[in-house]
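User: Hey, quick favor. My workstation is busy. Could you predict this chain's structure for me?
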Amino acid sequence: MNEPAQQTITDNDGFFASLDIVTNFRELIETAHYRPVPDDWFVGTADIVGSTEHIEKGRYKMINTVGAAVISAQINAAPDIRFPYVFGGDGASFARPGSFSERAADALSRVIRWAQDEFDLEMRGAIVPVSDIRKAGLDVRLARYQPSIGVDYAMFTGGGLAWADREMKAGRFTLAAAPKGSVPNLAGLSCRWTPMQSEQGRILSILIQPRPDADPRALDELYGKVIKTEEGLDRAGHPVPEGGPGFVWPTQGLILEAHASHGTRPLFLRKIQLLFATLVALFFFKTGVKAGAFDPVHYAATTSRNADFRKFDDGLKMTIDCDAETQKKLVGLLEDATSAGLIRYGLSEQQEAIMTCIVPSVTRDDHVHFVDGAAGGYAKAASLLKGVAASS
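Assistant: No problem, here it is.
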């Protein structure tokens, strides 16, 4: 497939970078931190059809990798332009200026094709104008949350992403796969860390969605109580050890990374390259020896600080390391709010968390790490949403 012509970039492309940075996660409850995106923007969204069945077959690491590929392809379509995105386990969503619609659609359509060709996964995607979202009475508003100096993540509210997802599943605004043989640019997409065992009892992936008629004040009060309870855990329930996850050889995600990065080269050659590269990496992570500008100890610790284990995505999502008592408190809060008609929620429980990463450079601190539960995580939580018939 031919590369699309370079599009003119408008002044709105600096919108996301201009947002104030929030460093206290609890403050993200406050609507004052969110600003509506410009009218000419669009939302892109994608997920894997039948993800629940794939999870039951033990393919969730694969599902996570393909979901993160949506973001990786968008980053590589314009590496120097910041834009908001959010990882959802079995898919992802993003927002970009209308001037970038052709390149964004091309990158997403290539991921849809790649998911089919490499993994026999059916992925659906959509490009939805923000103007259509606003005509439906909803919005896309953004805030920026910085968990550490090196990276910040977009927080979404307004209901627009959730509406775009529903429209996509209903067959509207859908994007066709690129021609067979097309490949996305997934440079930096990595799956090398080992799963992280729970240290407090269990890994919980929690998905909280407000009902359309939810009282905003009551909803904010609930979010505040949930976050306060979660922050009572050691390190606020952060599932990634402070010194970073473990690293073994050969890495468990090596084959997935090979599928993501071999491009048009033979897959077996890329596997051989990665076996060598990860063996070298093992030496540095085990010894702590620096290699030029690469400091493995600093990199691993930054990985923990940069991880996105909690987020606002038209609702609250968290993957946390939780003890039984705190889990009981959280479930009590969520059950009460569900009975009151305020929210829908889903919760999946597992013994490990996993990460999928996008690493532009190992010598910088801007690498991003998407955290999820290892036995279904957010996708399974979505299938267990109380009070609705959720589709996977």
